[in-house]
Every structure is written in C-alpha cells, then in structure tokens.
Automatic annotation (TrEMBL):
CDD domains assigned: Rieske_RO_Alpha_N
Lineage: Bacteria, Pseudomonadati, Pseudomonadota, Gammaproteobacteria, Enterobacterales
A GO molecular-function annotation: iron ion binding
Recorded coiled-coil stretches: none
Pfam families listed in its UniProt record: Rieske (PF00355), Ring_hydroxyl_A (PF00848)
InterPro entries: Rieske_2Fe-2S, Rieske_2Fe-2S_sf, Ring_hydroxy_dOase_asu_C_dom, Rng_hydr_dOase-A
Keyword Plastid: no
Keyword Nucleus in annotation: no
Organism: Sodalis ligni
Residue ranges occupied by any Rieske domain in the UniProt entry: 59-165
Required cofactor(s): Fe cation
UniProt entry keywords in alphabetical sequence: 2Fe-2S, Dioxygenase, Iron, Iron-sulfur, Metal-binding, Oxidoreductase
The protein, known as: Phenylpropionate dioxygenase-like ring-hydroxylating dioxygenase large terminal subunit
Length: 387
C-alpha cells in the first residue's frame, strides 16, 4: 500500500516546473496518454502564462454573424481582461476595444443597435467605426486632436459565419488552419444559420476542465445516466485523429434509438443529410476554447472566457436554420430548448466543481486516459505546443 502519511512534493505555483512537467510527461502514443498535472489547474502563475501564450497568442471565437445582421448591431464580451465590442458598421463586421481613450471606462456594454458609442464617464463619443467624434469641454487641452483618435481595432477573421479574434499579428490565418473542416462546416450550413438564443453561466473551475468534459462522452454513464446516456451511450462514442487546430468526438444515437431522441420538437432539420448523419452528433473543439455541437437540426457554439484559475464564463450560442427561426412558434421553441439544456449543464457543473476541489489535493497526480478520452490528450498536446 502507498504511504499516504508522507507529504507528496508538488510544483505549487512554480510555473516553470509545471511547464517542464507537461513537456516531459506528454507522450506521442495515445495508449500511454495521461491528463495534465493537477497543478496546471490550480496555479495562478501558470494561468497567467496560459492567458498570454494561448488566449492572447492564438485565435478565440467571439460570436456569429447572425448576432449582428443590421448596420449598428453590436454585442460585447471580455476576453483576457480586454472589454471588446463586435459591431456591424459600414466596413463590415469589426471587433474593437471598448475601452475609452480618455479614462478607460468601457464605452458600451451588453448588446443592441446604435449609431454611436457614448462613454458613461464623460460623454466622449465614438462612431461605430471607432472614430472619436465628440469630446465635451476639451477645447483648452493643448495639442489634442480628436480626429486622430480611434478605438483600437482587433485582428479578426470570419470563417463559415463564425467570428474569431486574435491579439497576435504573427499567428497564421484561422481560415487557412481550418480549411480541412470546410466540407463538414459547409454540410452543416454554419454560415447561413440564425441565432436562436445565447446563454451565459459561471463555471467555478478551470477552463480546461470545461473543455475536457464537453469533448468526451465517457462520463455519460455516471454523470448523465438519466439524461444523455440512454440515447447516446458513452461507450459508442469514438474519436479520430486531431487536426492542426481542432479535435472531434463523434456521438452516435443508440442502435434502436428514435430520431426524436436527436431532433428538437419545433425545429426543421437541416437538409442534405444521410440517415447516418441524422443519427449522430459531432462534438468539435477548435483550440483553445471554441466548443461546437453539430446536431442535424441545430448547432451550439460556445466560447470559454477564463476569469482566473478557478473561474470560467461559459458563453453559449445556439444556431438554427432560417426555416426553423421563421416558424410562428419559434420564440417558444427557443425558450424550451434553453430550459431543457439546464439539467445537463447542472450535471456538468456539479461534477467539474467536485473535480476542481479534488485536483487541489496533494495526493492528486496525473491520471491515465482511456480511448474514450483521446480528446483530453489532444488538448494536452495542443497546450504543450503553445506554452
């Protein structure tokens, strides 16, 4: 038996030691796969390193073009402590800093439609392209020319209607990286879909735990045994090779399952699908934190917004066909979909919160992974390449 009375040495908050552990332990053989070390989920220093190297250094999903269909439409979100506004202006879809150039209050919050952004602190005003057009009582400030001032524009790309941003000028194009997914994303008509609803909720655990749990079905039999497991048994799921910017988990319907277990009442399925397509759901991770559920009649696209090592905001967007959104009863259908998702969300919140607590134990170490968890290993390998 192990001697549990002795204190087990841990890396604590030594970021360099955690990085060295990750680089040393990760194997190129999936049959030998392990989790990341538990310190990687509990270190302030490593969290800061991830934010700089991963969330500032790579592409992050922020939304879908259907959220801002009209001129002046906008929505906001915070990524790595950067308040951002995504707006449709005369130039197209633009992502800008929402921080006032005067004394740093965000000039806009929430979502809506407007002709200008007005800072609530001193009424400095910006047009929807970010140009500073109003500065009350600044006429005595020497050498100040508001016409030379503009909110910083963040590098962005639109791929199949999905809006991605990066703070890096060096990282390769996300459209180029995701080219091998074009056929699948075209099949699900991602660019043509409408927004059904959005849902934000707090996850009191590390962002990686949220990604890992979404991307494997092994936990269905324990965590979702009365919700997902009956229709989508975890043992039937399978995972292939990952790509340069993503990984996929496939979740088939049980052998004798009815299509009603996959489809949502009130929605019109997407067109052009085979019988096999109609009987499974694909789970996709676009690194680092864009989580996509591809269903025959709807898509969910989530972005994970890490706040600190033990808190993440989950921002979920659900998309449906234009035929579905045009249904007279669509508002009620969307409300029912949103409500029905909460039970599964609650189950994951419960287990990941317990997992976070356990990961802080000095008796915790890297855990072995099975074939149903290969996507967890894929994420660990991605992180190894970024840190």
């Amino acid at each position: 038996m192990p001697e549990y009375s002795q204190r087990i040495p841990v890396a604590g908050d030594d970021c360099g030691m955690i990085i060295e552990k990750i680089k040393r332990q990760q194997s190129d053989n999936s049959a030998l796969a392990e989790t990341l070390p538990p310190e990687a989920y509990n270190s302030d220093a490593f969290f800061s390193h991830e934010m700089e190297k991963i969330f500032r250094g790579d592409w992050v999903f922020v939304g879908h073009v259907s959220q801002i269909p009209a001129l002046g439409d906008y929505f906001t979100l915070d990524i790595v402590n950067e308040p951002l506004v995504v707006v449709r202006n005369a130039e197209g879809v633009s992502v800008m800093s929402a921080v006032c150039l005067h004394r740093w209050a965000p000039v806009v919050s929430g979502q809506g439609n407007c002709k200008a952004f007005v800072c609530p602190f001193h009424n400095w005003t910006y047009d929807i392209t970010g140009n500073l057009i109003g500065t009350p009582y600044m006429n005595q400030a020497a050498d100040f020319d508001r016409k030379q001032c503009r909110l910083p524009v963040i590098r962005s790309e639109i791929v199949h209607g999905m809006i991605f941003i990066t703070f890096s000028e060096q990282v390769e194009s996300i459209a180029q990286r995701l080219k091998p997914l074009n056929a699948l994303l075209d099949k699900y008509q991602v660019a043509e879909l409408d927004t059904a609803y959005t849902l934000d909720y707090d996850c009191p655990f590390n962002w990686k735990m949220a990604v890992e749990t979404f991307m494997e079905c092994y936990h269905h039999s324990a965590v979702h045994r009365t919700t997902l497991e009956d229709s989508f048994p975890g043992r039937l799921s399978y995972i292939g090779e990952d790509g340069p910017g993503w990984t996929l988990c496939h979740q088939p319907l049980r052998k004798n399952g009815e299509l009603s277990e996959v489809l949502t009442e009130g929605l019109i399925p997407l067109t052009g699908f085979s019988e096999e397509d109609m009987r499974q759901i694909h789970l996709m991770l676009i690194y680092p934190g864009c989580l996509i559920g591809l269903n025959p009649d709807r898509l969910s696209i989530s972005t994970l917004l890490p706040i600190n090592k033990h808190m993440t905001v989950w921002h979920r967007l659900v998309l449906v066909s234009k035929a579905s959104s045009a249904q007279p009863s669509f508002a009620q259908t969307a409300a029912d979909m949103k409500a029905s998702s909460l039970s599964i969300i609650d189950e994951d919140l419960m287990i990941n919160s317990a997992q976070q607590r356990g990961s802080a134990s000095q008796l915790a170490g890297p855990g072995r992974l099975g074939h149903l968890e290969t996507t967890v290993w894929h994420l660990a390998n991605y992180i190894r390449t970024r840190i």
